[in-house]
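**Fold in tokens:**
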Amino acid sequence: MFDKKVINSVRYPIYFILLIWGIHLFQFLTPFDFSYLGTYPRTSFGLRGVVFSPLLHSDFSHLINNSIPFFALSSLIFFFFPRVAWKSILMIYVLTGLAVWGFGRSVFHIGASGVVYGLVAFVCWTGIFRRNIKSIVLSLIVGFYYSGMFLGILPNQEGISWESHLLGGLVGIFVAYWFRYQIETDEKPERYSWEDEPQETSFFLKRDTFDKTKEERRREEDNDGNWFTTIS
């Protein structure tokens, strides 16, 4: 069962990695250059970059630097948060692209780094919003391991789309907040057996003691006494 869950968790991240490596190798081995399909902010033709930009990379170093964390983080999300994995990753992918298109510099933005920053932020902030042991531990591990990445959000870095990093991180926080109540089965608080058992409760006085007047209570007592006398 565990092995099957692991396989299902890494399957789709592997497909994505194979896709971006295949695209880059095709460009490397042929005269084609697909950089024009990247995100170019605030232009109609630049909107196609919302879909294609994360699939394109400038060189092998850029590709490797994005492939490893994307695979690790997306696999982790599929394994620990299967209920929201597809929805959260797709939202991060699309919303990051739209945010860069709306607020980025007027240059072509390519690469999956914005999505990677979104995944990091999603895992870290899910622990803050859900406040259960599993989410908090994952948040601390990922936050510690990828803490150096946060330097990438600093502005005016030549040749780096810091806007993608910053906006991807903000999108990841938003998505973590959006799905904060869609918790997994193993995140639900444990119910103890005695919580499901009916509890018999006895009271010193009748529950309606203070709802009746003295005269009404006296009549009930008289009726009870007459009823007892009659059947005896």
